[in-house]
Specification:
Elements: H1 14-26, E1 35-40, H2 47-61, E2 66-71, H3 77-86, E3 93-96, H4 99-106, H5 115-118, E4 133-134, E5 137-138, E6 141-153, H6 154-159, H7 169-181, H8 195-208, H9 211-220, H10 226-240, H11 260-265, E7 271-275, H12 278-283, E8 295-298, E9 312-322, H13 327-337, H14 340-349, E10 354-355, H15 367-377, E11 381-384, H16 386-389, H17 392-406, H18 414-422
Parallel strand pairs: 1-2, 1-3, 9-11
Antiparallel strand pairs: 3-9, 4-5, 6-7, 6-8, 6-9, 6-10
Helix pairs in contact: 1-3, 8-10, 8-17, 17-18
Organism: Kutzneria buriramensis
Keywords: Signal
Signal peptide: 1-29
Length: 423
């Protein structure tokens, strides 16, 4: 996801669907034989300008290829892409996040197998590309990877007398209490979009479950181990401490100054659990241009006594897939997006924190961004967000069940039961 936005799964409406079908029918947002149509989620700077520059540079170097750029609000992709893949004229290039979501899309027969088209250069980005494989075939290519943690306002922490970020859940709860005592909302949450709620469940599950359990559960598409119910209890216990703003269930995550991202950007809340992309989202929402100098970052705290590997992080990535009509041209363009030139632009602009090209790592200058990059690099294992790792319908059921916990519905086992019942 604005910048590097996370894709939500429940924000589209019938009006959006109708608009898409109309666009596909008219050819205004679909692929064509003499060029490429590119759907991306960079609706705001800095990502929007990075992609504009990339498209312009590629067109200049490839005079016979026209790229029609179509920025689309992040929350609309989950509905728009399936509809487009059912149409006669889907986009040539479209944004996705790999995993089970991409596996579901590939079943349409419209998503191109890029295995042979990318084998000459894909090895340069290493293991990151594995998240875009389905049954051993490459159905997409990432351009960055992600890690989830807490972005916080150092100035608000100082006001509350907090001298260092918490490393344990007990310390986080104590810091939340200190912030509230000083009239500061501890944590902003964009519950309207549901996936930010799911981050909490995911993080607690990563702390409560072993790596072997995480892997086998995603493969089986079932959450039967007791650690998943323990994660649900952890979520409920944390909600009970009341760390979030009033009305968090109706607050959007990234749209407008009143969103959870906007709250932190404008000093209305001290923290937000979000991905490394969030400062680029905040940039378009902040009234203070110097807000970034007041941001710090820390990983999700350890849970005392929890058996999960503390070196495991929650994360994922962003990338693109091609549809079959112009797969060769699309694959060549994706190779350009992963070139050192574009990857450095992503980093220098603030649009990406963790580039997939090792050649771009040296472009990271901000010490906080370097902290995030190094934390991800040292991870013992990266658990992809469950709603992306699981098939689409199962991921949607999981997000809904997690959101219900934040709405006061369900119990500790509800999320696991939703996953188990969706298969």
């Amino acid at each position: 996801m604005a910048g590097k936005l996370r894709t939500t799964r429940h924000a589209a409406t019938a009006l959006v669907a109708l608009a898409l079908l109309t666009a596909c029918g008219s050819g205004g947002a679909s692929g064509s034989s003499d060029g490429l149509t590119w759907w991306h989620n960079g609706t705001q700077d800095p990502l929007k300008s990075v992609w504009d520059r990339a498209a312009a540079a590629y067109q200049k170097a490839h005079g016979g290829t026209k790229i029609t750029v179509v920025p689309i609000q992040n929350e609309q992709f989950t509905t728009k892409v399936p509809l487009a893949l059912q149409s006669d004229t889907p986009p040539d290039i479209y944004f996705n996040q790999g995993g089970g979501l991409l596996g579901t899309q590939a079943q349409s027969g419209r998503v191109a197998d890029l295995t042979d088209l990318t084998k000459g250069w894909l090895g340069d980005i290493g293991a990151a590309a594995k998240g875009w494989t389905v049954d051993g075939k490459q159905y997409g290519v990432p351009y960055d990877t992600h890690v989830v943690g807490f972005w916080y306002r150092t100035d608000l922490f100082q006001q509350a007398g907090i001298t260092k970020p918490p490393t344990t859940l007990d310390e986080l709860n104590a810091d939340n209490a200190a912030l509230k005592a000083h009239g500061i909302t501890p944590i902003a949450l964009g519950g309207k979009d549901k996936w930010p709620d799911a981050f909490y469940y995911d993080e607690f599950a990563v702390r409560e479950c072993s790596v072997a359990t995480l892997k086998s559960s995603i493969t089986a598409k079932k959450f039967t181990d007791p650690c998943f119910t323990k994660a649900g209890k952890d979520v409920l216990d944390f909600i009970a401490t009341k760390p979030f703003q009033d009305g968090f269930n109706a607050t959007p995550a990234q749209q407008g100054v009143g969103s959870s991202a906007g709250m932190v950007a404008n000093g209305k809340a001290a923290m937000e659990l979000q991905g490394d992309w969030e400062p680029s989202v905040m940039k378009a929402l902040a009234s203070d241009s110097s807000f970034a100098s007041k941001l710090g970052w820390f990983p999700f705290p350890a849970v005392t006594g929890a058996p999960g590997d503390p070196s495991v992080v929650l994360g994922g990535g962003d990338g693109f897939s091609c549809t079959v009509a112009n797969a060769d041209k699309c694959a060549d363009f994706l190779s350009y997006l992963d070139s050192a030139e574009v990857q450095r632009d992503l980093v220098n602009s603030g649009a990406a924190v963790i580039p997939v090209s090792p050649a771009a790592a040296g472009a990271i200058k901000d010490p906080v961004v370097k902290q995030v990059y190094d934390y991800n690099a040292k991870a013992g294992y990266v658990q992809v967000y469950f709603d992306i790792a699981l098939p689409t319908a199962t991921g949607q059921a999981m997000d809904d069940a997690a959101a219900n916990l934040f709405a006061g519905k369900g119990d500790a086992s509800s999320v696991a039961q939703a996953v188990n019942g969706a298969g």
